[in-house]
Design goal:
This protein is mostly helical. The protein has helices spanning 2-22, 25-29, 39-54, 80-98, 119-135; strands spanning 109-112, 115-118. It has a two-stranded antiparallel ribbon. Residues 135-140 have low confidence and may be disordered.
């Protein structure tokens, strides 16, 4: 099961990586209007989500007290490299966490924002969350 999760998340990461290759620096920071999010901001939110959800995911709530979700929607990146480095940091955290999943803990209870989830459900929740930003990258 773990290998299937990893394969699916690798697919979504690869889509993002290919998107970065096709975009100029200017396009990474472009916003349709003040109410929309640039790709840089979406990366900041997705990676922030990954770091919060997947750091010590078996023993700590997935919404870490130090996470400032609202700040994730304010661009603080200045370069493409900063965006890509944070993107990679988030994915590394996710893949490190997925490598800890096994048959014994798949149905274990973990918490996200104080709400109980099985490990399996938490993975499905994130599988639905990350691709949704690709589909809605400018409006969310």
């Amino acid at each position: 099961m773990k290998d299937l999760f990893i394969k699916r998340f690798e697919y979504y990461k690869k889509l993002g990586d290919k998107s970065f290759e096709q975009l100029s620096d200017e396009q990474l920071f472009w916003q349709f209007n003040e109410e929309s999010n640039s790709i840089a901001v979406i990366v900041k939110h997705i990676a922030g989500n990954m770091l919060s959800r997947w750091t010590n995911f078996l023993t700590e709530d997935g919404e870490k007290p130090e996470r400032n979700r609202d700040e994730e929607f304010i661009n603080t990146f200045e370069t493409r490299q900063e965006i890509l480095d944070y993107w990679e940091e988030g994915w590394k955290c996710l893949f490190d966490a997925l490598s800890q999943i096994n048959d014994e803990n798949l149905e274990s209870t973990i918490y996200i924002r104080g709400e109980a989830h099985s490990v399996l459900d938490a993975v499905f929740r994130q599988l639905a969350h990350y691709p949704s930003y690709r589909a809605n990258r400018l409006c969310c």
